[in-house]
Amino acid sequence: MKVIIGFEIHEQLATKTKLYCDSPTNYREVEPNTNVCEVCTGMPGAKPYPMNQDAIDAAIEIALMLNCEIVRDPIYIQRKHYDYPDLPSGYQRTSLPIGIKGELNGVGIWEVHLEEDPGKYDPLSGKVDYNRSGVPLVEIVTAPDMHSPEEARSFLRELTKVLHYTGKVRPEGGTMRMDTNISLEGGARVEIKNINSVKGAYRALKFEIARQKNLRKRGIIVKRETRAFLETQMITRSMRTKETAEDYRYIPDPDIPPLLITEEKIKQIKSLMPEAPHLKLSRFMEQYGLSRDDAWAITSEIDMADAFEEVAKLYGKPGPAASFFRHIVKKVLGYNDLSFRESGLSGKAIAELLSLRDSGKITDAGAEQVVRTLVKQPGDVRRIIEKKRLIRIDEDHVLEKAVKEVLEENPGAVKDYKSGKAEAMNFIIGKVMAKTRGRADPKVVRKLLIKELG
Amino acid sequence: MVEVTALTDEVQEKVAKYLDRARREDGDINALIELNPGAEQAAKEVEKKIDSGKGGRLAGYVVAVKSNINVMGLRATCASKTLENYVSPYDATVIQRIKKEDGIILGMTNMDEFACGSSGETSYFGETQNPRAKGRIPGGSSSGSAVAVAAGFCDVALGSDTGGSIRNPASHCGVVGFKPSYGRVSRYGLIDLAMSLEQIGPFANNVRDAALLLEVIAGHDPKEGTTIKDQFQGYTDNLSADLDGWKIGFAREFEEFTEPAIVRVIKRGLDRLSSNGAEVVEIALPNLDKALPTYYLTVFVEFFSATRKYDGRRYGYKIEDVCGREVLRRIMLGRYISQKEYSGRYYKKALQFRSLIKRELLHALEAVDVIAGPTVPKLPHMLGEKIEDPLVMYGYDVLTVPTNLAGIPAGVVNVGRIKGVPVGMQIQGRPLDEQKVLNAMHALEKD
Q1: Whose C-alpha in A164, A246, A408, B19 is 20 to 30 A from the C-alpha of B100?
Q2: Which pLDDT tens digit goes with each residue over A43-52?
Q3: Backbone phi, then psi, for A177, in 5-degree steps?
Q4: Domain's final residue, options A268, A284, A299
Q5: Residues A90, B315: contact at Cβ < 8 Å?
Q6: What is the pLDDT of residues A221-271, one digit of tens each?
Q7: Domain count within chain B
Q8: Candidate from A83, A249, A255 with C-beta closest to B338
Q9: DSSP 8-state assignment for residue B37
Q10: B227, B295, B305, B310: best to mutate for the A interface, most A CBs within 10 A
């Protein structure tokens, strides 16, 4: 049965101040209701300041990155009225589309626009924290072009990547919120609100498809309605049906003149904006001859992609460099739960490391140890190699001694090998590598072992 | 009439005199909701500055403020139970500018509730008397500000004008009132009635004082996106009654709407303008009859939106639970016509008519320097003579609302009396050309 899925995605923009006032946006780090003023708490008589230019620029850049056309007519800011404790004025300011007719990975982008975040209401205590009130959000509305939870998930992952490429959204993540529309062929459209992560979206869709299929099996017609996703229980629950749909009574906000985006502004943003990840991926494959998997891994993060390009330039061998990034760098980052940007790794250090490895000064295992050290404490590559005594062991007598010791300590493995179990060899090589703390060349060790064991 | 003028008395003495008079006389008049407990202290400091030669442009001026403008520490009640306990936590931009130039805030004035009214009768704190036409309404909605000036409680006052709320009471109380071009004065700190129409403006006993207060409060405000960046020259420096070579427009439609006695007084005013060198020419404003419905539809929708914050969660009361009938009527109508299914039929249509009316006025102003005419089509009714039909009440506004729909400047100055009741002439000018309006007003009062 054909499934049709679309999204409305909200992401906070990483501006210093709020959308319509000068209050700071770092609300996570401060006490409730301290990053506020009369504007973002909607005090009687307060008026919105002119729109935050950084937020406008960020929305334009995101729209361009999503291959949108930028709207050149006056863009009105509208008041969307609804009654909820987190809305200090009883309406939310939301712009008409800034970008339209975009596309990402085959999914249509209907529009990109700007709006303000409401405050945060805690129904248990009945308290509202207005620190978040007025933080700029970009809303991205997709066409209903996805046909399975898996497709939806991979789109959301790609979108997250694009947003982070721009550097205009909160780098720490976890600020994406979305609503999804889903219908099964021939059925009514159901909207699911309150989804806070890619994983949540996937689960909500899985649940909702199962729910709708079950209803059909029992001959019940799926109603057009709005449901809420309850993350802890991984289910959706009905909020309201079409008959009780809200009327937001949109009016253009009389306090805010419409936004006019000039051709120069678009040109300026285009000239400064990063290459989109999917374009970078194809370019890496073509320009550096990388496999799709290598290119995919490296372009997962813009800082890593930039570092790779630096390494390719300084070190000169993109293929081996890519393999090092994908297998060693990503492994160490994953192990430490760091992004490349957070790790402090640089293209220059990695290029130097690869050159030292190629010249035989250190082994692959040694190189990995340097990366592990660097992500904990940035430093000079050569100094780390010296300090940690990672220089490759080339003296035969040192290696022979280590091999002999390992064979004496592991008679069982030796017996296994001699009785025809070839994989015992890898175990023994591993033991020699451990004894030399990775400073031995495994190929040389293998040769020595074969000689020794006959 | 008031004989106290700025800079002739010692400031402290003057403030004390005003406060004393207000305490003695306002019990009957009811122009003030709250006096500023810091007024005497402020006077002391201003006097010190004057003595050391550092007084600002408003040094010694005592200013009364309409209760819909935020003055830190004073109550901005909007004359409504809804906000009876709302103490402003900040100064409106106009108040910052007045304080910076050493104006002294006398207190907060009475008004029609949330500026919804043209009579001064809808206040939660009771109606205001007209000191210049005893027993009659003072007009509104800036009733208390006009009356505070007329009764001699202050030198100048601030009002707000959404569809005539400064000009109407100025006319009925025989004082000078001025509504600036939209965007000329910051609305930051003005509590909303209809955001796309209103401006803060001055009341005074004479055009020069009005011009002075206007030039202090006018100008671009980086915190208010609808203010205009245009530089303006000093209004007082360029004040002149010489109208040589001017063309003054008088619309024949004015006579259709206005009581004949008022028209006669206005025509005498036109004669005065002619005697100052101007030529009076007839102009046509055929869409004048569309202004009132256009205006009120716009007000209802914007006011409905503006009052959503009074939901009972923050300010004690939910507005619909405690407000008067006129405020409730406007909210309910706004709620109704802003619905998705009706917005196209009413609100969007109102926006189209608004452009039409604006075009018509701007076109007329291409041929003349200013338009002169009556302010209010009828005399103020007697207090206690309840007007139950809102359409009759709205009829007071027919000549003042087009100005706001077009965003142009307009001022009112007294040109005569009918059986003792003051009649003000309205001068409307081109967008941002406050000076010409002030000069025409000056010529009228000079006589």
Answers
A1: B19
A2: 999 999 999 9
A3: -130, 145
A4: A268
A5: no
A6: 888 888 989 888 888 888 877 656 678 999 999 999 999 999 999 999 999
A7: 2
A8: A249
A9: T
A10: B305
